[in-house]
Amino acid sequence: MSEIKPYIPENLQHIAIIMDGNGRWAQKRGKKRVMGHKAGMERAREMAEYCGEQGIKILTLFAFSSENWKRPQEEVTFLMDLFATSLKNESKKLHKNKVKLSIIGDKFGFDRRLQKAIDKAEDLTKDNDGLLLQIAANYGGRWDIAQAATKVAKSGIIEITEELLSEELVTAEIVEPDLMIRTGGEQRISNFLLWQTAYSELYFSDALWPDFNSDELQKAIDDFAKRQRRFGQTSEQLD
Ligand code: FPP
């Protein structure tokens, strides 16, 4: 019997995900919060594989926000180590699968070892033409807009247009997210891609991130497929 291929709408090129609920997932199992991050990493890997297989062009995962430094030191250290180890262990496989890896965020906030691991993984995969996997780390939407505005201001231009600012965001030249998903039952944007999600379709799932598997992702995609995106126009104009 042949397997039915999941439906991926043509207008779905970029999925962005706020991976929330790792801590609660671990606590529910009587484990330390950080064990949720470890399980969450497995899910991140599964999502990237699924998106690559289904021909999604871009997947952006919110791994560490500018505000996450305020978490207990033990958790921050664990996340940094997990990030460094994963970059080291996964880059070859990502490269083999033609994934282009890009870390978006203020990389200078990381220690030298992590910065080096990021540069190495990005350099290895830079010419790949498969899935673009963007990991938002030490990222904040407000930081992104502010750093873009600084760059435009430095160029001496006084009339700042939307186009000029967009070109300086860390996601410049990349199509904006069509679908933004947040897991973990909360319904907020938490300083993720503030500018870039102006017209994204939003999807909230009660599943905690380590429970959010590819079936759950496909459910979100199926929901997206039913939406009419109007970009400010009326539905009659689009008929
Ligand atoms: C939010 O859950 C999750 C994070 C702040 C970290 C996300 C990190 C991973 C999924 C692992 C690393 C992944 C990559 C791709 C580098 P939470 O801890 O706020 O959960 P809670 O709301 O239940 O406390």
Overall radius of gyration: 18 Å
Indicate the CATH topology: Undecaprenyl pyrophosphate synthetase
Estimate nothing, just give the exact number of structural domains: 1
Helix content: 40-55%
Structural class: alpha/beta
Would you identify the CATH H-level superfamily? Decaprenyl diphosphate synthase-like
What is the second-level CATH architecture?
A: 3-Layer(aba) Sandwich
The biggest beta sheet is recorded as: 6 strands, parallel
The fraction of residues assigned to DSSP E strands is: 5-15%
- What bound compounds does this protein have? farnesyl diphosphate
- The neighbouring-strand order within the major sheet is 3-4-2-1-5-6
The overall average pLDDT, rounded, is: 96
Number of strands: 6
In DSSP terms, counting alpha (H) and pi (I) runs of 4 or more, how many helices? 8
Instruction: Tell me the name of the CATH class.
Output: Alpha Beta
H and E order = EHHEHEHEHHEEHH
Blueprint (SSEs and pairs):
Elements: E1 14-18, H1 22-28, H2 33-54, E2 58-65, H3 73-96, E3 100-104, H4 112-125, E4 132-139, H5 141-154, H6 162-168, E5 179-182, E6 201-204, H7 214-225, H8 235-238
Parallel strand pairs: 1-2, 1-5, 2-4, 3-4, 5-6
Helix pairs in contact: 1-2, 2-3, 3-4, 5-6
Bound molecules: farnesyl diphosphate (FPP).
Farnesyl diphosphate is lined by residues 19-24, 37, 40-41, 44, 61, 63, 68, 82-83, 86, 135, 184, 209.
